[in-house]
């Protein structure tokens, strides 16, 4: 499987962002990528009122356009995350996997909300967003398991272990990681998740300052099951990074270091129910 991560800087203009995302996804497909991952909140990145204004139900025009794009290019598209209306004023931060047949294969709603006090910012994602309550593992056209996660989820290894146990071979991390946390933690966390779960990791990050004033740190990455970085974008600027995911190498890593079979589930509890394909 050849995979790609798209790095972009979303504005508050949905049409402009859709045009940018479509162009970059097209570039990835032109380079042979069969699986393409967009960043978190690529349709609109800004304050919560910007997101509310742009939010659409999953049967709306935005997702319909993504389905057409995936079908036209013949790719699996993990459309980063979009703002989905909830049953109150708060939004779900939802990642959508669309298959090459143009059908929605899975929807994952971000479990862990970004409520933090950093040196550079204090932010309460929960003021305007609702957490999901399901772990979601989807499946690419070639049969590879795809684990869906979003941004702050990266700090919770339990989620990634649950996805690996559910059959994920590829872990997708669309993000808008801040510049501060990108520089301090991004690479370490991504490589740790890849090594722990013996999975490929595709991490697509935003870059630059958004309308909210928060700056994202770029450095989108594709990492193999041994923790090696296969491709990496710079801290700033649009980018499409592409790498071949060798599933035989993944299985070799799992044979050499049989961490999954050595688990002591008799001592510590397994995770709860997971949505699987």
Distance between the termini: 19 Å
Instruction: Look at the structure and give the CATH class.
Output: Alpha Beta
Strand elements, count: 18
SSE succession: EHEHHEEEEEEEEEHEHEEEEEEH
State Rg. Answer: 17 Å
> Whole-number average pLDDT?
94
- CATH second-level architecture: 4-Layer Sandwich
Strand content: 25-35%
Provide an overview of this structure:
- The protein is an alpha/beta fold.
- It has a single domain (2-256), classed as 4-Layer Sandwich (Nitrilase/N-carbamoyl-D-aminoacid amidohydrolase).
- It has helices at residues 14-30, 48-54, 61-73, 157-165, 179-197, 247-256; strands at 2-7, 35-37, 76-78, 82-85, 91-98, 104-109, 115-117, 122-124, 129-130, 137-139, 145-148, 168-175, 200-205, 207-209, 215-217, 221-223, 229-232, 239-244.
- Strands 1, 2, 3, 4, 5, 6, 9 and 18 form an eight-stranded mixed beta sheet that branches. Strands 10-11-12-13-16-17 form a six-stranded mixed beta sheet, covered by helices on one side. Strands 7-8 form a two-stranded antiparallel sheet.
- Strand 5 and strand 6 form a beta hairpin.
- The longest helix is centred in the last third of the chain and has 19 residues, at 179-197.
- It is globular.
- 48% of the residues are buried.
- The model has no long low-confidence stretch (mean pLDDT 94).
């Amino acid at each position: 499987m050849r995979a790609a991560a798209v790095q972009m800087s979303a504005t508050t203009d949905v049409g402009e962002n859709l045009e940018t995302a479509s162009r970059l996804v097209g570039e990835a497909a032109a380079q042979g990528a069969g699986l393409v991952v967009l960043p978190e909140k690529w349709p609109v990145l800004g304050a919560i009122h910007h997101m509310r204004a742009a939010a659409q139900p999953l049967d709306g025009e935005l997702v319909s356009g993504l389905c057409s794009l995936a079908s036209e290019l013949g790719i699996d598209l993990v459309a980063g995350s979009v703002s989905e209306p909830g049953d109150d004023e708060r939004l779900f931060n939802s990642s959508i996997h669309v298959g090459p047949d143009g059908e929605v294969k899975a929807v994952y709603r971000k479990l862990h909300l970004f409520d933090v006090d950093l040196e550079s910012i204090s932010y309460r994602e929960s003021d305007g967003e609702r957490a999901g309550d399901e772990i979601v593992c989807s499946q690419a056209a070639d049969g590879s398991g795809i684990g869906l996660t979003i941004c702050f989820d990266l700090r919770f290894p339990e989620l990634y272990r649950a996805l690996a146990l559910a059959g994920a071979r590829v872990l997708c991390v669309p993000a808008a990681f801040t510049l501060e946390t990108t520089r301090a933690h991004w690479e370490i966390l991504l490589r740790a998740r890849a090594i722990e779960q013996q999975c490929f990791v595709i991490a697509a990050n935003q870059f630059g300052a958004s309308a909210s004033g928060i700056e994202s740190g770029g450095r989108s990455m594709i990492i193999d099951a041994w923790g090696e970085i296969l491709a990496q974008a710079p801290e700033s600027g649009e980018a499409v990074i592409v790498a071949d995911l060798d599933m035989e190498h993944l299985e070799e890593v799992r044979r050499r270091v049989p961490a999954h079979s050595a688990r002591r589930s008799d001592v510590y509890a397994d995770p709860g129910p997971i949505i699987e394909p």
